[in-house]
Amino acid sequence: MRPSQKPTPIDAFPTPTSHTQAETEAVLLKHTLDNGDAKPVLEKNAHLQFLIRNFVQGFPQRYTSQDASQPWLLCWILQSFSVLQVGMDPNNKQRSIDTIMEWQHPDGGFGGGPGQSAHLLPTYAAVCALAIVGRPGPNGGWDQIDRTKMYNFFMSVKQPDGSFLVAEHAEVDVRGIYCLLVTATLLDILTPELVEGTASFIASCQTYEGGFSSSSQPYFGPGPTLLDSPRPALGEAHGGYTYCALASWILLQPFLNASTGPKPTVNTKNLVRWLVQMQGTEIELGGFKGRTNKLVDGCYSWWVGGSFALLESIGVNVNHNHDTNDPAKAKPDAEESWDDVDDDLFNRKALQEYILFAGQHPAGGLRDKPPKNADAYHTMYCLAGLSSAQHRVIQSPARRAELARSWTSSANDNPLREDIFLHSLSWVEEEGTSKIIGGAANRVNATHPLFNLTVTHAEGIMGHFYKQTIPPKSFRAPGPAS
Amino acid sequence: MPSASSSTPKDEPKTLFSERPEWADVQALEQYEISNPLAPIFYSEEYKDATGYFRAIVKKGEMSERVMELTEFIIRHNPAHYTVWQYRYKTLLALQSPLEAEIKLMDELAVKFLKTYQVWHHRRLLLLLQRDSSNSFSAAAKELAFVAQSLKADEKNYHTWSHRQWVLSQFDHEDLCASELDFVDDMLNHDVRNNSAWHHRFFVVFQSGVREGEEDRARVVKRELTYTKQNISLAPNNPSAWNYLRGVLDYSKMPYAQLTSFVNLYAVPTDSDVIDIVDLDNPPPSKDAQLPCVAALEFLADIYEKRGKDDEEYGTTAAVEVYFPSFLHFLESNELILSKQVWKSLAHEHDTIRQKYWEYRIREALVNA
Ligand SMILES: [Zn+2]
């Protein structure tokens, strides 16, 4: 046992929660002991084999439960390839495009499979998959997306309180809002009309713990309510919903900045506190959990770990040592081990160790935790989480200025188009801040913190739909040199 | 989030829809028009058969009794097939069938497929259909009983808890909420670390109107603080209870400093012979408590930090500046020094995984001072 791997204290008061917690700690501890002091290796080849098997041969029968999530299955595989720095041949790209286009609904949006109703979640997955494999022109996918009908579909599920049903007669939740906002941003169909009231709805989902819940609901019960806004959150603070709410909040910033009326707010201090509390301790190998008093799980490496990259965009001063306006203030200190650099609010090293030691299935693919099986979902989100722990991708004023210089506006422009475009694509990796545990061979690609696509893929599809030429990055992004 | 799991119902008739004479008039539809889609799923024969008929039904827009049978069959194989649920709901409305049979079926399916969004959402739709009817109260009451039962099998199920909150929000009956606090109390007595139950308590006490007997809000807040402190004393290292405590104080805009004497008991190393006095406002830690407790240290640092800021706001430092300018630096940072000490002990000893965060708190406090 490493010196700091103390069991979670249970105060001699066992309950079901402390039982499962102790069981999990025993399993995880064994995973560090088994590995001894060996350098953790990202088994890229084994994961690739796992992904290729799913991609080409398909999924076994137990995946029938994902029959209404076929775009997700493909999106997870394709984005895993991207994170693993694997390109695809034209033939497989075309087959992917042809598969994806079968999911487009005749009335707009994409469904979970051919003939399935349009739904916000598979719409996001299909469009992201097209960002990776698609191209302009005939049969390239991009120009075969019916954006007018998609917009109509979005408006058809819009609710008076600013939220959206994920599909006709279906539920409201912030995952759907995130999916809609990303899709509309990528495809240049994000309008004030579409997102009227949405930021307020998002804000209402924050709970007293600081994270966000799935949804909120006006209270119709008896008596006067005590809340300023009578909209209790439904469900407790949760990692997946928190990421979706926070990313949505940031995607909505061009609208918030432009609005003159009273603006909704989120409690940033409580949010930061909640996010850091989700990191498990040393005995949990520093993996993330999704709720207070629940177990660590590899997929929260992205949902919670990936949320940290978004904090600077809402005014959290993550790194007092760097000043983007004055690169000279960046503190180069070769003597300092990187562990001591104030580079982020969570333990990036520990998160990488959780994924490398516990997240990898020996037979390929990544997972929730041992001894569970690998699956496509956890493979993607463990890899994305690993990426967010290796790289710091943040909004850069210099990149924004560069994009702004080459922006060309078109006639009858939505005045916010330019801001949306710059706001979305000004993300760059901070120079000198990548930290790869286990050596350079473990490096994976950086992903865009808002979209979970590579910046290159986000630039490709947005450049096309906004009719812009993306200028190459011509400067070194500031950051603490190392 | 839970991953994919399979479910193939065992005891059911094996007859394929394609072999049933009553379906002979329908031509099943293939899923894909292209011949070689990527990442295909290997369906069972029955599932493939049934979904082929479902696609055909949707295409012709048929809404009939046999559609209810077909959609139930598919749902039993894949309860996450939202299009099937959606079509079933529309068919139910079109047929204007009595809801009893559907509700009964849902009671069975919710138990089977507890972790599926669609199962719970369908229940909501059914409840909404009953909301304006004469039996809306009994429908909601039954639903709460059903949810309570489901939570026994899966005490932290997200859908189940948010469903319960939804029911309480939607149905306007004082009596529905009457025993809700007892319900939460039962759940917490079973597992005081169940964060879902703590969240539900917050919903019930602070976010769902004022119930009879709870009009005196100051008393309610005091009751909640006492309740939480007592639960902390049983098992001090329980972040759920501390988060609730913070939530109550934040909500009622009360200073954390009000709990200083309580928190102090938990922020020092275990010392067996300190307290024997019964103090209901400050219940001491149980004798096996593992102290100091991280959450108490954090709480204490927050108290110090706030005091440091208040000193400035209320003019202490301004006065010092006028009369004793050379002491300014010393006084200004007095409380901050204390919070800094606590944050340092968290960063380097008690909560090392969050070292970066505690260092951030120190920097922030200095920047904002
Ligand atoms: Zn997971």
From TrEMBL, chain A:
Cofactor note: Binds 1 zinc ion per subunit.
Region (Disordered): 1-20
Signal peptide: none
Keywords of the record: Metal-binding, Prenyltransferase, Repeat, Transferase, Zinc
Top-tier EC class: transferase
InterPro entries: FTB, PGGT1B-like, Prenyltrans, Terpenoid_cyclase/PrenylTrfase
Function: Catalyzes the transfer of a farnesyl moiety from farnesyl diphosphate to a cysteine at the fourth position from the C-terminus of several proteins. The beta subunit is responsible for peptide-binding.
Family to which this protein belongs: Belongs to the protein prenyltransferase subunit beta family.
Name of the protein described by the UniProt record: Protein farnesyltransferase subunit beta
Species in which this protein is naturally found: Hohenbuehelia grisea
From TrEMBL, chain B:
Record's keyword annotation contains Magnesium: yes
Tree of life domain: Eukaryota
Alphabetical list of Pfam families matching this protein: PPTA
Enzyme class: transferase
Keyword field contains Transferase: yes
Annotated Gene3D superfamilies: Protein prenylyltransferase
Record key words, sorted: Magnesium, Prenyltransferase, Repeat, Transferase
Enzyme Commission identifier(s): 2.5.1.58, 2.5.1.59
Obligatory cofactor(s): Mg(2+)
Record-linked PANTHER family: PROTEIN FARNESYLTRANSFERASE ALPHA SUBUNIT/RAB GERANYLGERANYL TRANSFERASE ALPHA SUBUNIT, PROTEIN FARNESYLTRANSFERASE_GERANYLGERANYLTRANSFERASE TYPE-1 SUBUNIT ALPHA
Family: Belongs to the protein prenyltransferase subunit alpha family.
The protein's name: Protein farnesyltransferase/geranylgeranyltransferase type-1 subunit alpha
Biological source species: Hohenbuehelia grisea
